[in-house]
Amino acid sequence: MGDSEPRTRRAHRDAVRAGAGSTATRPRASIVGVFGEVLITVGVIALLYVAWQMWIGDWIIGAEKHKEASALSQSWMTPSPAPSGSGTPESSPTPSPTGPAEVVIPVQDQQAHGTQFGVMFIPRFGPQWQFTIASGTSRADILDQGEIGHYNDTAMPGGVGNTVYAAHRWTSGAPFDPIDKLVIGDAIVIQTPDGWYTYRFRTLEYVQDTQVEVLLPVPQQVGVAANGRYLTLTSCAPKLNMLERIIAYAVFEDFTPAASVPPASLTAPTQGASA
User: Fold this and answer.
1) Which residues constitute the domain of residue 168?
2) CB 163 within 8 A of CB 225
3) How far is it, in rounded angstroms, from Cα 275 to Cα 273?
4) Residue 250: which CATH number?
5) Which of 37, 80, 103, 207 is deepest in the core (most CB within 10 A)?
6) Residues 237, 51, 133, CA angle at the centre, nearest 5°?
7) pTM confidence score
8) Is residue 1 part of a domain?
């Protein structure tokens, strides 16, 4: 019993010292550590935002625009009694006296800004790829809404000259994302209430954003009068670079009236490429 008291005190004192030591070595949060965690959190949020913009959001918006375009296309499958444009229909070059009758190609008048007047199909991009075409190329109300914009003062579908269109390659459904995957001879089909206009892709070109000659009646040919029916698609290249453009050129092949069966070009992406 004599030495039990001192032994108990010593044990208590050792326990207190051990507790004090563990408190002294406990890690403390530093300003640098907190700042690092904040940066990591911000980085994760930024990555999620980019993922949304480039993949998830595009997929959702693209699906919605495909559905909208499909509904508009179906509404035009019942032909109107007369062409929608009030202008004079344009016909193909005059045939020889013994040749076949002229094919009359209806051409719409220029539409008011923002008016949806067509649906574009590019079978190379898949059977679900279809987007509405609206008049104008402003960002907020047309391109950023996932639509394909038609450049004002360029030809309307089927018209003599150059019919020119613009769309995003990323964000807002990214209609022209796969534009660089086009193959010579691929069909680019535009449907309007009058029918389907089929063009055939010919070549790609990369230009600066100042090279507006791509909009001319004969693309890149200054001072040359329209001598055929052309189609031009424009978008950004690379996708996140606003200083350059990727340009796809196509030439007119034929017109299929709304009263007819839809053209085979809607299901067969590529035809034998001819010069």
Assistant:
1) 48-91+103-266
2) no
3) 7
4) 2.40.260.10
5) 207
6) 50
7) 0.73
8) no
Contact 258, 218 (CB under 8 A): no
Written as one letter, the residue type at 188 is I
Residue 214 lies in a domain: yes
Total count of domains within the chain: 1
User: Domain for residue 273, yes or no?
Assistant: no
Q: Are strands 161-166 and 229-236 parallel, antiparallel or unpaired?
A: parallel
Torsional class of 220: left (φ above 0), alpha (ψ -120 to 50), beta (otherwise):
left
User: Is residue 26 included in any domain, yes or no?
Assistant: no
- 176-214: pLDDT as tens digits: 999 999 999 999 999 999 999 999 999 999 999 899 999
pLDDT (tens digit, 9 = 90+) per residue, 207-257? 998 999 999 999 999 999 999 999 999 999 887 777 899 999 999 999 999
- Contact of 52 with 170, CB cutoff 8 Å: no
State whether the Cα torsion 165-69-53-142 is positive or negative. Answer: positive
